[in-house]
Structures are given as structure tokens and as C-alpha cells.
Amino acid sequence: MTWLQDFSLLYFPSRFALSWTQVVTLGLVVTAITIPFAFHAGPVLRFIWHCFIAPLGDKGDQRAALEKFYEGQAEVYDKTRNGLLRGRKTMLSLSAAHMQLMQKDLPEKKGLVWVDIGGGTGYNIEMMDQFMPISSFEAIYLVDLCEPLLQVARKRFATRGWTNVHVLCQDASTFTLPSWEEGANPQGSVDLVTLSYSLSMIPNFYNLLDRVDFVLRSSTGLVSVVDFYTSGRNPSLHSQSIGGEDKTCGWLSRWFWQIWFDLDAVHLGPARRDYLEYKFGTIKSYNGRNRFVLPLIVRIPYYIWLGRPRDCDTSQFTHAFEVEGGNTVGNCSPRSLASSSPVLANSIPTLEIGSPLLGSSTVSKPHAKETLIDIVPPLSSFHYQVKKEDPAEDMRHLRLTDRDSMFVITSAGDNALHYAIAAQPKRIHCVDMNPCQGHLLELKLAAIQSLPYTDFFGLFGEGKHPSFRQLLDSKIAPLISSACYQFWRVNSSSFDPSSSFYLNGYSGLALRLAQWVFWLAGVSGDVKRMCEAETLEEQEQIWSKKLKPVLLNGLLVRILNSPVFLWNALGVPINQRQMFLNEGTASNFIHDTLNPIPSQYLFKDGAYHYLLCLLGHYTPTSCPDYLTQRGFDILRADDGKVMDAFRLHTDSIINVLRGLDSRSITRAVIMDHLDWFSPGSKEVEEEVLELRRVLSGGGFVLLRSAARNPWYNEVFIKAGFRMDVLGMRKGPHRAIDRVNIELPFPFRSIQSWFFNTYLLRQLFLVPFCSLTFVMVGINDLPVEILCMILDYHRGDTKQLKQFSLISKPLLFVCRRYLFLGMRIMEPIPSINRSTRSWRRILKRSPYIRSYIRTMELGPPIFRLLAKHHEKYSQHWTEVLTSRTPSIDSDIMCQIMASVHGVEKVTLRFEFQSWDNYSSHFKETVALVVQRRSVTCLNLEDSVDFPLELLSSSSSLRELSLVSVNLSDQASSRDSSPTPVSISDPSEVEKGESAEAFGQRGRIESLLLFNSDDAVKQLVHLSRPSTGLDLSGLKRLSVNMTGVDGRNALKLIPTVARSIETLELRMGLNYSGLDLCSFDDFPTLKSLIISQSFNQSERHPIHKLLPFFFKTENTSKLEDLQLHYRCESPYANSCEMTQQDARRLIVSAEWRRLEACLLWNQHLDGSGSKFNGEPDTKYPLLRSVAVVLRPDDVAPFMTTNLEASLNVSLTGIVPRLHKATNIRVRINNDRFEKYL
């Protein structure tokens, strides 16, 4: 003890001398600190030694290098990588959520197979059990080349007792599963492949990804990757569309991290990720930065990526995006740029689907007084977390039904959801240029479908949720787009419990300012009391005495009137600000807006717009309809069926309108967005015209404005709309709705009232009794139609005073003369009354052009009624012998060039040679045939028509050739597409550009009648080097009378192998059936044979038997229709009685056909029993129809078409009914399509 004291005196000055008790205490403290540090520092030191100090093995031998690198740190690998390898948990959570969703709708539940490539210690597999039970997988394979890490994995799996997890020490680029070695087909045998920080370490990554693509199941396969990366600037549309936010790395970051990781044979170049995104379709993509060491300095870029094989079926989504959503190629290009001028055409950049808007400098120079707001970018946050329009007031005027299609501005999506709940319309197009607004609505739709009501109200009612990140990854992510997921992953703090979603973004700035003002003025408690007030009187008293002096003071009004604050906090641009300042001061506007609300609407039970502004959140009793339990249940019912109506667009309104079909929208709600434009803006005129085009009859536009008389009212009226003011704020005493900010104006399409039968039917009960009113209201109608109305009543003044615009006569006129199309079919060619009449109609009422969908040009030479044949035969003789067409070329060209939206075109050429027509007429016909809108083309009675013009018909889907004759000279000419010279560029329709030429038309339906000469040229045009595509042909109709149709049956199947419906019109001799068999049509599902018969031949079926027996292979035929038509010129003799029909069905010929269809065997000699066992070659046949009717010409000769053929076939052919359950029916064709 003395020695210790001396020792202390020897080594320490007296002021530092320690007693023995202090030394022991200090030792215990140091031990307590050192032991935990040593425990944690050990793995870290081992990690540092092996990663940064110890020499690497031979880099030429990858396996040896990996084992040397990980051998000393395998046991501590997981402990030292949690901070470095970020994103693994998120990747697994996303993968599990997507797998469960894809497996949910599978008709057959198969065992799942998961391959974890480069899984090392099995950490990923153990973690996956938190999100998706390991027992739900049939087999899990961990593939890795490093044996030390695999030893850790085997111990881990043995501890957990998992028998379906298998560890394979193999090279990832050539991995092989045990089931493949046993003979199983590897293609499509794997459901999930994950690569966690392993893709960057595999040298031969091309072979790996190709192998993964081969073994993944095409329907439900998923590949998930998380890894480090580097990327330069990549402004491609593909990168933007899949969520390229924060993908770009700075030059210094790329240079440093590539060199740093390359020292450990980890390659961060962009090639791996680029090939990954090229090989697979992207589902989710997130680009993050790892800040686990020195967060402000060290930021390692990493990404999380999920994808699917590109051969998976996306037809449903493509149809929803392109057809239902109107996202067609070319709709992003302003129509003002469409021109035949090569100089202007070259200045237009090539656009892809999803491309951003053209810059303003490309479109036009801005007006001098116009303020341009560039919002692509920097709108990286919200301007509107809540809609400032009252949807309940909108519903009073919209009168929505489930048949309506809507066009609305997205904003926060609250109003669109309200419309869906209240009326469940057929389609709701939500449009917004700010992508953040679309992401918000997309999140709401996905959350409704995936979350319970309590979580959903927590997110969007209270504006906060403690587990938003977890909900996003495990529940919501599978239902949102990649760009939307990346946005909400980056902004996941918006729903932090410490704040509120509605206090974020630009609009949250205004709410935070209001709360700060209330706190500064000491009225925060009064705000809460006003929001909880039970009566309007109590609420009004608190407003008048406490809050009104605070909110309407001069200083705050000046802040609210600031252009900077109005735009950044309230989303009010400078042009809209100027509109309400032109009609008063900012103080008056704010006073008139806010003052009436507390005395009319109770915040606690309905006026949720201002309750949110005051509290920063909603309450269960005062919230939008979609946040109520009732609204939530309606939206979620039937697996979200109501929400299928939504189509989201992140684009300008004009671009979206261009992509929509004409007359496809019944209600357009565009809010106050036209206030953003400066007076006289050309963009407003173009948008109004597009709205006019897409609106159906009876449709209207509902808009709001901050001004009482906005300048663009005249633009709507000039375009043919009628304006009704639904509400106008006239002072501070009465509110127009629960928001009381903007005035609603509905603009109804006047002209479409007269030319759309849908609206006429809808408003059939609306009384217009005054004839004077009728005549004033229809002064825009063509004179010819007014004359038709007057002629209909034959001068009956009393009757004329009774009917209205929406009564039967006008309905008949509109349907007969407008909606069935434009018909120029004057029987007497020399008169041309129809041609001149149509020219007068189009000249007087040009707006009719947009409604015409069918164009039928040319007289029906051989389609006249029999009683008129002799009367007109002399005129046809003169036409055919004079070699001069009777068509007035100039008038016809004017009509054809002026009708832009035509979809079905019928051209008859009077059997005149194509060379006999004028060059101007030829050019016009070429432009009509090649027009984008044309999907159906009928060519009739032509000689030497240049079929090569069809090579440029890019939208053509249905083609009919009737009596199309080609001379030997025309058949041998070059069939390569020839550009058409356009003498007058003004004749080209708007929106038509040179890009329309050269695209391939994909024919789906082809009819050939007396046009066998044209078949060879059609087949020649179907070469890949030309523009006509017959490979996708689904329906083929051929006339087989005489020698007609032989070329069609021999040549068409050589280029079209996907025909599903074959229609053959046979004559009495059945010639041509020997040229084809079912083997020529491997995909045939429906066969329709029309046969001629006469009274002496009672059993024509036997002529078809060789055709059905001739096939060598099993047929996919599902439907068989046999049509029998009489060749007798007398209609009465064509009527077949029920006894005749029964005799036909029970005949021996029918039994032979039955034997062919069921057993593929002939009857024996007695005709009483079958030889052999059932072995049918038509196993899928489920429908047989026998149609007995007069000949095609009979309806034009007589009106006596009645024939009753009610036969109970279950009693006649019980064997056929019981054996295959084929539905056999006998139909009575009443020729409705002819009458």
C-alpha cells in the first residue's frame, strides 16, 4: 500500500494524485466503454483491413479473387454492409408487393420460383420473409460464386429450417437450376430474379441478362435490381418516361466513384443499367444517394429497379393509353405546323409518345404583352393540394350520367373524384401540365384501391401518417407509375406526423402564413372555436369580431395582392390578377369573397375548403366526398371499377384535345385556366376550336373566371357556342357557392344541337311550341334541310306549329342526311343534282364537315331498283360508250377535299378507265384514300385503278374491292408506292403531314367480289418493302361464282396466316372449293358459306362434304354458318316452309355432315350407323347455323319477305346436341341490313 502511494507520488503531481478507490472506479468505467467499442470495432476493423489494406487475389480468376476477398470477412459481412448497401429492403418490399398483385388474378396458382443471383450470405432471402412468406415459394435458389459467403447462407437457412431454399455455387452468367438438368424446360420457368449489388460485379453481364430474360415467365415474371451506378446527362424520352429524376451524376461524382469502386473490380459504368432497361420493360425506378458517411460530403449514387420481360401482354394497357386516352402519335405537334412545305416540315422535330411540349420559340413568337410561365420545369411541387371550386355546385349544372365522358383539369383531383362518386361517368380525362398534380391524383386512386379507410383518411384527411414509406413500398407502389413512385419516394416527408401534407408545397405556403398570422394576432383559439361552431350565428360572430379584422387588414391585403405571393402561394398568374383588378380593387375582391361565407355555410359540416385553410387538415364531418366512408366505399367497390374511368394526362390542354376523337366528350370542366392567357391569345382560339370538335351534340363546357365578363366569351360565341351565366358574385352579401371565388359559365354547343341524334334523343321531352322560335333557332341550318322539314308536313300549318326542333321530323332528317354520311348517288348521271346540293350545303354550313364520317361517291350503276332499270339504261349506255365520266370533277374535288374527318369512303367509277379522269380528280382521290382518318375503303366498278395508292393508307383497316378490273398493262406495272403531287397545298386537311405517307396500313378485313384480277397486285403490295400489310388479316370474304375467287384462295393465305373468319359466296356449281382446305387457314375460327340452290335441289349439303373431309389436321373451327339462297326470280317461290327446313335437317346428307363434324367418319352403306370410334377433327366447334333465305337481289324486287322457320333442333338432331353440345339453329334472315 505504501509502495502504491509512493508510485502515485512518483508519477503524478500532487494535484493529480488518485486514491485506490478512484483508480478502481476509473478502471471499471474504461472497461465498460471499451468492451462495447471493441465488440463493434472488431467487425469494422476486419472490414477495413480486407477492403482497403489486404492485397486482392488474382483478378484473372474471378472465383479465387472473390474467395480471397470475402474469406476473412464472411462472418461479419452482414454487420458491416447495412449502412453501405442501401435499398435492399425497399427492393424486396417492392418485389413482394408486385408479385402478390400479379399472382392475384392468375386463374391457376402455380408454385413460385425465385432465383437470387449474387445473394451471398442469404440476407435477402431472410429479409424477404418479412414481406412474403418463404413458404409461398415452391423453390428458392441462391446463386453465388463465393464459397465463404455461401457457407454463411447454408447455416442461416438450416437454422430457419427452410427446405425449399437451395444454395448453388455457380457462375451467374451460366447458372443452371437442378430441375433443368432433370429435363424441365428452362424457358419461362422462373417467376422472380433479384440482383442485390451483384450486377456491377459480374463481368459478363450481357449473357446474364439475356439468360434471365429467357428463363423469366413472360406473363408474371419480375426482375429486381439494387446496385450502385453512375450516369451522365441523359435527356432521352425513355429515361424521362420511366422516372429519371435525380439520375444524372455530376462529373466529379462519376469520375471518383467509378475509379474508387473499380479498384475492387466493381464496375459502375452506365452500360449495365442501360442494357437492363433496354432488355426489360421498366415497372419501377428510383435513383437515390447513400449518405451513411459524412452525409454532406459523401453521396454514393444507387438505384432500385424493377422490370418485366418485354414479351408480356400489354395490349390492355396500350389500348387504354393510345385509344381510350387519346395518346396517338402526332397529337403533340401543333396543327399550325402541319404543312406540305418541305422547309417547314424539316423544322418540325421528330416526336415520340410522351414527349414534352414544344418550346415556345418553336411554335410562335409570344405576344408583346404576354407573360410566359415556364412550368416544365420548375414546377417540382404543388400549386394545388385542394380544389378551389365547389363540386357540389358543378353537379347541379352538369347533369352527369354513366354515359358521359368528361374532360377536366386535374388540379388536386378532388372534383374529378366527386364526379366519379356522384354519377360514375364512362370516362374522365384529367389533364394538367404540372406533373406533381398528376402524381397526387395517381396516389389517391392507388391508395383508395390498396389501403383501408383509416389509413386513407390519415393520409389525405389529416395529412399525415407515421408509416407512409412502408405503405408506399408494400401497398401503393404496384398500382402507380414509375415516375409517380419516384416522386413520392423523394417527397415521402410530406406526410410526416410532425407536420401536414397540406402545409407543404406552394399552396402550403399560404396556409402556413395564415397560421402564423393567427398566432401573431393571438386568435388561434378563436380559429379552432369557429371551426367547431354548432350554428351559423356563433360562427358569424367569431368571424366578425375576431378573424375579420385580422385577415382584412391593409398590410395583409397588400401581401395578398403581391404578384409573387399570388403565383407562388395561391397559383394565380399575373393575367388572372389583372382580370379582377380591371373590375375593382384587390381589397374589394378579397372582401367580397370571404365575407359572405361564415354567414351561409357552416365550417364544421360542409364548408371544408375554408376549414382546411384554417386548420391545415380536414375533419370526418367536413371533408370532400372522396374522404367520406360512403365515397370511399363507392370508389373501391367491385375492385375499383368506378376508377377505371380515369385517364391521366401530363400535358397541355390543347395537346390532349388533339389526341381525342371528334365528338368523344360530353362535358368539359376547364375551371379558370383561360384566365391565364393574355387577351387576344391565339392559343385560346385554337383551344376553343378543339373543344368544339371533341364535344358531342348537347355537350357543353363549364368554366369559371375571376372576372364578371371575361374577354374570351366572344371567342366561344364566335366558335358557335351559347353562353349561360350560372352565377355571378355581385357583392359581399351573398356567396355563389361554398368557395365564392370564381363565376361559373357554361358554354353550350349550339350547332351540335341540330346535328347529333344523341342530344336530340336526350332532350326529346323538352317543349318548344312556338314555330317562330323554331325558325329563329335554326337559322344556321341549310336551306335544303329546312325545305325537307316543310315538305315532310306538306304545308300543314297546324302540325308545323306543334312540332319542335327535337321532335321526330328533325331527328329523322339529321339521322338520314347527316350522320349516315355524305351520299352522292344521283341515279341520272347527267343531272348531278346531289353533287351540287351537297356543295351548297357545305358552302353554307361549313361546320357540318366535322360531323361527316361516311363518304359515298358515285352513282349505283347496278344497284338500282328493277322498276327504274329501263328508264336509266339509256343514260348508262351513253356514259359507258362515250368514255367520258359523268362525274363533275371540279365540284366532286371540292367536296372530297373539304371533308376532313371521314372514316369510311366508298368510291364508284362507273366502269370508266382511271386514265379517263382528270389529273385534278386523281390527285383528290389519292388524298382521300391516303387520309389518316380513313379506316374503311370500298372501291367499286373501277377499271385500272392504281392499287399502289393503298400503300400510303396508314390507317386503313377494312378494304372492299367490288368489280375492280385491271388490264394486263395495269397488272404488270410497278407496284411500289408513288408520292402524290399536290397542286394546291391548301386542299390538304389540317393536321395531315408528310409523315402520314409511307406508313403501313394493316388490313384486318378484306372483301373481294368480282375482283380476282386485283389479287396478285394486292399480294405484291404486301411485301415488306411496300406499304400495305396483309399479314394481320382477320376476315376474308370471297365470291366464288364462276372462275371468280380462285386467285384469292390460292394467294391470300400465302401472306395472311392469321385469318379467323372466312366467308365464301358459292354459286350453283360450287367451283373453287377444291382450291382450298382448312389446312390453308390454320387459325380459322368462323366459316360462313353462302350457297345457291333451286326448288328442284332439296339437299344441297352433300356438295360441301368433300370440303370438310379433306382436311388433314385438327381444325380450330368454332362457328359454322351455312346460308342457302334461292336463285329463283320470284320471291314467293323462295319462301321455305317449316316442313322444308325439317326435311333438310333430317336428311341423309345432313347426317353425313354430322358424321364429319363429330366423328370424321362416313356412314356405312345402309346409312344407319357410323364406322369407327369418334375422332373428330373439329373439337372446338360449338355453333352451327343454317340460314334459309331468298337471293340477295330479292329485297329490291318485293316487300314480301316474311318466312317463319321455327324448328326445335334438340328433337331433330339429338345425337349432335348430346355429343358435343353444339348449338344448332335455323335463322330467318329478314334483310334488315338492306332495308
UniProtKB/TrEMBL annotation:
Domain Methyltransferase: 115-217
A Pfam family annotated for this UniProt entry: DUF3419
The organism of origin for this protein: Panaeolus cyanescens
Alphabetized InterPro entries for the sequence: DUF3419, Methyltransf_25, SAM-dependent_MTases_sf
Biased composition range(s): Polar residues: 968-984
Membrane-spanning intervals of the chain: 20-39
Stretch list, region Disordered: 968-995
Protein name: Methyltransferase domain-containing protein
Keywords: Membrane, Transmembrane, Transmembrane helix
Gene3D superfamilies: Vaccinia Virus protein VP39
